[in-house]
Specification:
five-stranded antiparallel beta sheet, disordered C terminus, globular, Mlu1-box Binding Protein, DNA-binding Domain, single chain, about 30% strand
Length: about 140
């Protein structure tokens, strides 16, 4: 299997916070798993483990090498991303009864709207890019 690369970044706002979705070399959209977990208040390692145990959503989770600051330079290392097509399925598997009230509200909000808004942002950005390409 070919190693995935990030091709383009799309930022969007969700309840006052800015998130980044990436178009990868396979034509799919991904978001950092840690970004979603941190925003909701979930432990990323626990969620990564839970996803690995669920064959129905495991294929949505990928590691992509990205450049990150390291001391006085930059280095590439694998970062866990999740395909936004599977985001709803992963979020639906989170038992809101087993988390704090604050986390429960965030989980509910994310389940309801997050993937949809991320996808709409990507589509509107791609439409703008396509329209611009026609003008060239």
């Amino acid at each position: 299997m070919m190693e995935l690369e990030l091709v383009q970044k799309f930022s969007f706002e969700f309840y006052g916070d800015i998130y980044e979705v990436y178009l990868a070399s396979d034509g799919q959209l991904y978001i950092r798993l840690s970004e979603v977990c941190d925003a909701i208040g979930l432990d990323t390692s626990a969620q990564r483990r839970r996803i690995r145990e669920d064959e129905a959503i495991l294929h949505y989770m990928v590691n992509i090498k990205v450049e990150t600051p390291y001391q006085d330079s930059v280095r590439k290392h694998a970062v866990t991303f999740f395909n936004i097509q599977g985001l709803v399925y992963w979020l639906l598997g989170i038992d809101a009864k087993r988390v704090s009230l604050e986390t429960k509200e965030k989980v509910t909000r994310f389940k309801y709207r997050f993937a949809k808004i991320a996808w709409k942002t990507y589509r509107s950005e791609m439409t703008l890019i396509d329209e611009h390409d026609d003008l060239a």
